[in-house]
Amino acid sequence: MANNLLKGKNGIIFGALDENSIAWKVAERCHEEGAGVLLSNAPVALRMGKVNDLAQKLGTEVIPADATVMEDLQALFDKAAEKYGKIDFILHSIGMSPNVRKGKEYTGLNHEWYLKTLDISAGSFHKMMQLAYQMDLMNEWGSILGLSYIAAQRSFPKYNDMADAKALLESIARSFGYHFGKKSKVRVNTISQSPTPTTAGTGVKGFDAMLEYGEKTSPLGNASADECADFCVVMFSDLTRKITMQNLFHDGGFSSMGISMELLEGLAGE
């Protein structure tokens, strides 16, 4: 149900690929809540996905940009400034590991690919904020979000080098959150989401088991992509003006659990 929480606001959503993408759901919800949205993804992702269908549905456009390339980000942000003047929110929903795609174990990483993982999945977050900061692109009390996962803080062996990237992403949010807050009261946070069956998520080895483990451990069950989109809308709205530099767990209580009775009984064979 729409409540016009984002009426009069405009922003950029990075990372929508198809209907399973969290970024796709966020863009739809932002539009429903009255926001203007520009969509962006890497050119290769645009060829693979359906984001042009989403743009048509929302009456907006897709601006191709490799978020690791400052010139691409500059062209995108120039377009946003031309269209909106200043913007109110940014969603960073970008993550990719060549090591995961190529089946490299964490103990045998290709380190050139490792640096690419960090650049794509976390360094791009710093790059887009640095440029937005220098351009003075964000309105006061704007909101910037990155999507994370609990493997940034706990060991999930099959999450591989993406765990390191998410840890860096969360650190960047804290570090840049200070500077953006002092400059223009812009808040910067990460959302640590439950395992979610997106196109990217299901590429992680053992994902189905992680999904089941999360469901059995979390008192409320895993948070869905739609529920994450609702949370993002609230974080973009004026209802959360004093929340910044936080990693916010959106995982049905998973992050506070040791072991659930359901898992314990399963292990005991009851």
Describe the overall structure:
The chain is 46% helix and 14% strand. By secondary structure, the protein is α/β, with parallel strands linked by helices. It has a six-stranded parallel beta sheet with strand order 2-1-3-4-5-6, sandwiched between helices. α7 (162-184) links the parallel β4 and β5.
Quick recap of the structure?
By secondary structure, this protein is an alpha/beta fold.
Helix count equals 10
Order of helices and strands: EHEHHHEHHEHEHHEH
Strand order of the largest sheet: 2-1-3-4-5-6
Distance between the termini: 42 Å
Q: Biggest sheet: strands, sense, closure?
A: 6 strands, parallel
Which runs of at least 5 residues are low in confidence (pLDDT < 50)?
Answer: none
Strand content: 5-15%
Report the average pLDDT across residues.
94
Helix-strand makeup class: alpha/beta
Helix content: 40-55%
Quantity of strands, as a count: 6
Radius of gyration: 18 Å
Choose one word for the global shape. Answer: globular
